[in-house]
Design brief:
alpha/beta, Spore Coat Polysaccharide Biosynthesis Protein SpsA, Chain A, 2 domains, nine-stranded mixed β-sheet, 12 helices, globular
Amino acid sequence: MPELSVVIPTYNRLDTLKVVIPSLLAQDLALERYELLICDSHSTDGTAEYLAGISAQHANVRHLPGSYTGRAAARNAGIAAAHGGCILFNDSDIIASPTLLSTHLRRHAERADIAVVGWEVQVRHLDEYAYKRDHPHERGSLHPPTRKTLSWLYFLTGNASVRRVDLLRVGCFDESFTGYGHEDLELGYRLQKAGIEIVYEPQAVNYHCQDVPHEDQKEKMELAGRSTVRFYRKHPDFAVRLNLGMTPLSLALHSALGRAPGILQWFDRKAERSRLARSLVQQYHYVSGIKEALQIETMKDGR
């Protein structure tokens, strides 16, 4: 039986999956000690054919196709099918370093009642991945080197591992989070409330290869804003509102900026060249999603 199960949700990401899977098969860990579970939402880009070839060569690779309603449902399918005592969550556009799996297993061997979050290095394309892989000093940093533990706000399932028994104990992912965002943070919140400490392990490195256009990111941020309201309605905790930016101040600032469309459009035009402008505009769309979700709730309550 494997010690570790790597759960990878995917949908039409064959281009990056062809890099991700080999990176996970090139670990400094014996193949029989882990398995790869690719939870595929019926991709139409040749993913099934590719995985059939890989599985024929590697018995520890399993293709789990299904009509999943989102990443939460896909990951839950992986948890249910897993043979390993520990579950590591990875994504189909996140490339593993050779020691990723052994580092996660080492931390879990040290003590119980923990979740381990590693260092997810952001890269825009494969050339940048290769450069940062070969030049560690160019990776920057995710958290201060003294950081040992994290709050649920940093439980990001592109590089996070949890014992399977603990996931089952808290109910795994909430599949009502079908849109973009927060299904992982919400699970982290429940894990932390259940006494699971979230520890940071910067030696567990992988590389998130994505370059989301600004327009697409604005749409994602609106969806994340809607997920924030779902999160808060499930856990009406002031810490949730504060950490996820669902505060009277953020709502008021959004309204003020909305009354000055010329200023917002100016920042939007600068977004491709200015990180500050891009962040401001995307945050505006995030709060827009929060307000839209709140308005929908108000309309439903009025019926």
